[in-house]
């Protein structure tokens, strides 16, 4: 029986204005869920509901809120296999990857359990006697969180867990094509004992969400916006929040470079390029964009990489495969456009391109009836090429060459993104020069461009984001506001910078 899911506001099912069919991209005729879509009014109403609920939630002591987060982690852990299977069914992510994604939620909860006892402020010395200065972290209020569907449960947890821990209420809008996974995650959070209205989930399309968010910002019911998605939409969200003197937490796309130095372990580099380029069918914000290979090892690397891609298992995501289908038909349509960026001066070294069909087969393919595409490696990419400069969300990786590390850094930074990056080298000097010169917010040495850990800052610069960071203690800056307090117990008015004791030095003194 097809799942029927709708938005939940204040603990109650909300009305819908239309229905979206979430389908299995591995078998496109299979409907995973009938999703009731809400309108802008429902989104704005959810923000008002969250505002009311947040007042009481903020009064709950942070260590107690931390225990709620711990309960969420235990519930997710107990339901890990069921949740991972649903993710695989709904977006076609290989089951092993989906299980790892669920594990990331548990890791995030484990980390933030402790942060409930570490929402520290400071005691600051005053310049005047009989006066104490303090700082406090306060919750921001209501966070509106909008997430993509390529990581339908892990990435939302990066927002939801710290936001709730800090005493905020949340209105969360998951991607429509991953709505069943989002609804399941909401139910696990609710089962941990969150009061009604503290976490609300609204399913809506992009246009209605934007209208609802605009209204909520005008009404003053949203104090923080978190957005994960494309750079194009991220700009619009940033512009909207900026008009209301807010700074959104933006986690956007990437064109992530991997530099292969002459001294690199090529076998290891090929393994890293294969996983970061084609895991999740290349549909990660941290997916490999361009391999920048030193000219002395270019030929050998390309030969090894192309062979690894040709031999990689593609197909049914419930099996042991590198990649399954693309997430949804709209991503398949967009990927077809990316393939038109391949030019006559390029060389496709990986074999066939396009959708995998009986007329366009792939050896060892195990899928059937889904949005499956051949993984593509394009050699001979030039810095002026569209395939070099723009994000290609899907299973396509470009390869180019360099002579010096300075040239490699220039190529790595040229597209203007700044999310993730990687260098393969056995020379520490190369690794640190790369770290200093690359614009990316995240750097890997002898590892792939993909792979976040719950206690490290995640985020990018340039077209990849506005410098905000998720994960670890750094995300607390997104969901708290600093408050300064001075307490004068001298019994008199002491004026800062005016009533300060002056000890006069003898600046003319010489030995």
TrEMBL record:
Its EC number is 1.2.1.3. Pfam families: Aldedh. Residues 16-484 form the Aldehyde dehydrogenase domain. InterPro entries: Ald_DH/histidinol_DH (IPR016161), Ald_DH_C (IPR016163), Ald_DH_CS_GLU (IPR029510), Ald_DH_N (IPR016162), Aldehyde_DH_dom (IPR015590), ALDH7A1-like (IPR044638). One of its GO terms (molecular function) is aldehyde dehydrogenase (NAD+) activity. Keywords: NAD, Oxidoreductase. The active site is at 251. PROSITE patterns: ALDEHYDE_DEHYDR_GLU. The keyword NAD applies. Homotetramer. Belongs to the aldehyde dehydrogenase family. This is aldehyde dehydrogenase (NAD(+)). It comes from Nonomuraea muscovyensis.
């Amino acid at each position: 029986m097809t799942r029927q899911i709708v938005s939940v506001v204040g603990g109650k099912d909300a009305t819908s204005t239309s229905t979206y069919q979430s389908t299995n991209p591995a078998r496109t005729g299979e409907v995973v869920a009938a999703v009731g879509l809400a309108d802008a009014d429902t989104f704005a109403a959810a923000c008002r509901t969250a505002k009311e609920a947040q007042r009481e939630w903020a009064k709950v002591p942070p260590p107690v809120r931390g225990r709620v987060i711990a309960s969420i982690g235990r519930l997710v852990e107990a339901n890990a296999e069921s949740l991972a299977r649903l993710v695989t069914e709904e977006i076609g992510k290989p089951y092993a990857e989906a299980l790892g994604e669920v594990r990331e939620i548990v890791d995030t909860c484990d980390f933030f359990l402790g942060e409930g006892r570490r929402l520290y402020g400071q005691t600051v010395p005053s310049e005047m006697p009989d006066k104490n200065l303090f700082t406090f972290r306060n919750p921001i209020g209501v966070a509106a969180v909008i997430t993509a569907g390529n990581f339908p449960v892990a990435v939302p947890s990066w927002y939801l867990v710290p936001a709730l821990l800090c005493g905020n209420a949340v209105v969360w809008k998951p991607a429509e094509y991953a709505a069943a996974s989002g609804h399941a995650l909401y139910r696990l959070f609710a089962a941990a004992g969150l009061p009604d209205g503290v976490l609300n989930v609204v399913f809506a399309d992009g246009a209605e969400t934007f209208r609802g968010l605009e209204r909520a910002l005008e009404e003053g019911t949203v104090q923080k916006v978190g957005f994960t998605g494309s750079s194009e939409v991220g700009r619009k969200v940033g512009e909207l929040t900026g008009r209301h003197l807010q700074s959104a937490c933006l986690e956007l796309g990437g064109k992530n470079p991997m530099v292969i130095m002459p001294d690199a372990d090529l076998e290891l580099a090929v393994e890293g390029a294969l996983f970061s380029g084609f895991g999740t069918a290349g549909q990660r914000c941290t997916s490999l964009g361009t391999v920048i290979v030193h000219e002395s090892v270019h030929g050998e690397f390309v030969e090894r990489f192309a062979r690894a891609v040709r031999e990689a298992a593609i197909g049914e995501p419930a099996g042991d495969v590198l990649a399954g289908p693309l997430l949804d038909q709209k991503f398949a349509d967009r990927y077809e456009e990316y393939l038109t960026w391949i030019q006559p001066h390029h060389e496709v070294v990986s074999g066939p391109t396009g959708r995998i069909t009986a007329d366009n087969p792939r050896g060892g393919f195990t899928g059937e009836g889904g949005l499956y595409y051949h993984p593509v490696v394009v050699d001979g990419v030039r810095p002026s090429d569209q395939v070099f400069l723009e994000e290609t969300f899907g299973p396509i990786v470009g390869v180019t060459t360099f002579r010096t590390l300075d040239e490699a850094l220039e190529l790595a930074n040229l597209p203007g993104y700044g999310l993730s990056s990687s260098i393969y080298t056995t020379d520490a000097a190369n690794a640190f020069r790369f770290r200093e010169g690359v614009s990316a917010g995240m750097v890997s040495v002898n590892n792939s461009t993909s792979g976040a850990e719950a206690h490290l800052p995640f985020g990018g610069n340039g077209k990849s984001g506005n410098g905000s960071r998720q994960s670890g203690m750094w995300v607390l800056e997104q969901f708290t506001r600093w408050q300064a307090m001075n307490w004068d117990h001298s019994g008199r008015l002491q004026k800062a910078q005016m009533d300060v004791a002056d000890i006069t030095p003898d600046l003319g003194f010489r030995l």
